[in-house]
Design a protein that fits this description.
Layout (H helix, E strand, L loop, with lengths): L1 H16 L12 E6 L6 E9 L2 E10 L2 H14 L4 H16 L8 H4 L12 H18 L9
Antiparallel strand pairs: 1-2, 2-3
Helix pairs in contact: 1-2, 2-5, 3-5
Length: about 150
């Protein structure tokens, strides 16, 4: 377990240092704000939705290594995927983060998101990991969400 935890920590640090899809997306149909007032993490998710598919998704902003890595992985995992894939990943990710720190992790369902299992030992950091996911979920479930068109 110690070796896998070390690999997971490295994955989070790598996504923080070299985030994927870290750029403004020109022509985004949706811009979603993700903000945690407790720590100041603030991101914008730029989404190009075609029908029910994320044809493109990027982000910009500032935050801790955990929130930035989470946003990076979110954009990496959702590009080209259906909105339903987001809901399945979000549910699995959120559930994993709510479990006890020593609970087993379904790596097959979570993929690289399993890297955040260690965050469960630090409840205040769970909010960092879930921040971009929760913001996107809130937007997708909102009847009053405004489009960037």
């Amino acid at each position: 377990m110690h070796d896998s935890r070390n690999l997971y920590e490295q994955l989070i640090l790598e996504h923080n240092k070299h985030p994927q899809n870290y750029e403004r997306l020109e022509g985004a149909t949706v811009v979603v704000d993700a903000y945690n007032p407790l720590c100041g993490d603030a991101f914008k998710l730029y989404v190009q939705l075609d029908e029910q598919t994320f044809s493109a998704i990027t982000f910009e902003g500032n935050g801790c290594a955990i929130s930035k890595a989470s946003a990076s992985m979110l954009t990496e995992m959702l590009r080209g995927k259906a909105v339903d894939v987001f809901y399945a990943l979000y549910q699995s990710f959120h559930s994993m983060l709510q479990e006890s720190p020593d609970a087993p992790v379904d790596e097959a369902a979570l993929g690289n998101l399993a890297a955040f299992a260690g965050v469960r030992a630090y409840p205040m950091r769970v909010k960092c990991a879930i921040l971009p996911w929760r913001a996107l979920d809130k937007f997708l479930n909102s009847n009053t969400a405004k489009s960037g068109e």
